[in-house]
Amino acid sequence: MSVTTDLPAEPDVLVHTEGRAGILTLNRPRAINALTHAMARRIDDALTAWEDDPAVTTVVIRGAGERGLCAGGDIRAIHADARAGGTASFAFWRDEYRLNARIARYPKPYVALMDGIVMGGGVGLSGHGSVRVVTERSRVAMPETGIGLVPDVGGTWLLGRAPGELGTHLALTGAQAGAADAILAGLADHYVPSAELPALTAELTRRPAAEAVARFARPAPPGELAARRDWIDACYSGDTVEETVQRLTDSGIPEAKETATVLLGRSPMALKATLAAVRGARRLDSLEAALTIEFRLSCAAFAAPDLVEGIRAQVVDKDRDPHWSPQTLAGVTDEDVARWFAPLGARELRLSPPDGDGKG
């Protein structure tokens, strides 16, 4: 007679200390460690516990499995919430964005191992860290315009500070950046081959973070963006998405013309709001200010039809054939965009930036 025993499920975030390091492991490998509200809270609780713990001098965040650190927020849950007219997504975004700001200001080295897929909310967990490590497998992206959203989790702040118009390009297209391109765009700091991450992690438990990373950092393999800077800067320097598409189309450069086609497949409303948000973030004085505006944009997108339709097309039905509303860039007015940026009154996300500005 055999007896089966149901083992308790492992937490979605594994939290432990080893040597001098506090280690966070996102533990939903089948979902490429997509971030849930409960996971964001657990990470925040761990950061609280370690902030004043003298035994912990470094925090390390990594992803379970071989596919990536984090594919982003759990958009299936957001899709279900939006279809039901719920409010759970607002509570998630509030706590997630507060966590993003906390990571940027964390008083101890926060080392993000950005191996594999790092998108959306995954960028929020890593891109604001003080030490950001990419590998040859890294694919870093903010793909929100493809599902009717605007780059959030501080994405407009990060991309708004990328050299030239690289951030505008990455924000509007949602293109994936490999290791060298992520470093060039300011989304990462160091390249370490993926095979050496276990040894690096072991060193982080014994040595100061900067010293440990320096032992393993290598020059990244060549990327693509450096060679494309000329046409990216020229084509994205206009004031409107329409002008960008026209310049890309007329450039005579095959990669640029392909990019125009990519943009025309994204949500027109999200594209125009994203351009305004990235340009506006350049004028802001803190990550917290950018997150406040991103919360307005996320709330507006939640109430608009493109979010449900975009997630349906990309993730639920996977037909890759979204029917946007409005369908064209010409159908999105300046007034439409302005409404997405309108203050939320009592619902506003309120974050207080500290004195001085850190990385973020």
Q: For the record, what CATH class applies?
A: Alpha Beta
Our estimate of the beta-strand percent is 5-15%
Largest sheet: 6 strands, mixed
* Strand ordering within the main sheet: 1-2-3-5-7-9
Q: What is the total domain count?
A: 1
The separation of the N and C termini measures 59 Å
State the low-pLDDT regions, or none.
Answer: 356-360
Quantity of strands, as a count: 9
Shape: globular
- How many helical elements? 16
SS-based class: alpha/beta
Say what the CATH topology is: 2-enoyl-CoA Hydratase, Chain A, domain 1
Q: Mean pLDDT, rounded to whole units?
A: 95
What proportion of the residues is helical, as a percent range? 40-55%
CA-atom Rg in angstroms: 20 Å
Protein name: 3-hydroxyisobutyryl-CoA hydrolase
GO molecular function, one term: 3-hydroxyisobutyryl-CoA hydrolase activity
Enzyme class: hydrolase
Keywords: Hydrolase
